[in-house]
Amino acid sequence: MDQLNIFVLEDDKLAQKVMASRLAEHNVDLAANLKTALKKLETGRYDIGFFDLMLGPGDDYSGLKAIAAAAAKGVYAVVVSSSDSEEIIDRAYELGARDFYAKGNEESNVAEIIAKFVRGRRAADAADVFGSAFVTGDAPTRAMITEALKYAPTELPILLLGPSGTGKTSLAKVLHERSGREGAFVAINCSAYTQDLLEAELFGYRKGAFTGAADGRTGRLLEAHKGTLFLDEIGTMSLNMQMKLLKAIEERSFYPLGSEKPERSEFRIISATLEDPQDLIARGKMRFDLFQRVHGCTVNLPPLAERPGDITLLAQHFMKGGRRLSFTAEARERMLDYAWPGNVRELKKFIDLLSSGAEGRVGLETVAKHLKGQPARRAAGGGGLDDVYSDALARGLEAALDKVADQVIARSLAETGGVRTRTMTELKISTRLLYASLRRQENGRGTIK
Fold it and tell me: In this structure, is the dihedral angle defined by the CA atoms of residues 227, 254, 160 and 315, taken in order, positive or negative?
């Protein structure tokens, strides 16, 4: 367990002892009143702060002032208070609180908060992911992945959505690597098998279980023991196979084909599909109960055409360690305008093809020869100011500008590892603007659940 610097604002002596006992493994600094709290927050360096709001008889929630001071210093502020009306909860979050708990269950709540914070910090420390394992400079995409990384060390299942070639398998590997699980990463593409073959592949089989089974084979579920089972294209699985998989997930046990002895496996599920799960459920192609089991956290990876800034980043990444190319301005423009229907996978194939060619400086003619078809991105929208202008006409200028601000702030937070004070300093924005943006992003995040 990481040792943290923790600040506690609490006026009740017994409550102080309870908190000190729960936080004995960490460095704890206590304050019993607002004046002392503000002074310590100004001069000290803390990772997490626990805040009571009512500091003495007749106090008018003065602890709220300490939350704002803590948030401004980048402290992860958690309220633990007996005052939990909707108005107070909303005000605490508005001032920068990250969590709000009612007093009375500190033993489990404090442990949960600490574990959550450590997961988040490790995910933030994983900012290098975006420079190598999953290359992207797109702010919304980085924000979604950063959020998903917080759940990497947990048992929570993760569902990855997005068109083919957007990097779902790469992201699944990153999540496994950041999970700390000692077992292997085991991937299977469900669309590559018939129902019978998929059952044998997942559960394994004993010698003689069916015609042609000359030897037994360990199934993927057992191979993923204490590791991660990645089920790609889970939406293509038959309903009968879905039922069998659901039973194995719920019971953590299964019977290999031809065996009367069950096997046990403590695997963690990450799954992916390029189809909308809700549409699959509506069409009777996916069981709702299986969907409930695999979508604890959902990440929707956008197609490459919706994050054109990544085209150059990825092209440079694919040339690392090999032959370097240069592109004329016209060639780069054509690459940025192209729709990339095969997404990142198509871009990599394209760069590999050019790297094998004779040209070192690639011109428009060469690019156009390989990227056939009508440039789609410019037709769909000019990008940049054109997109902002179209959005402003559709939703109003204020909403359009808020969207731009949210994207810039999300990118800054991803690049600074979630350190809000750095984001405010570098972007020269106020605390109020930052938290207004965070609330909008939280309320509008439809793909993280």
Answer: positive
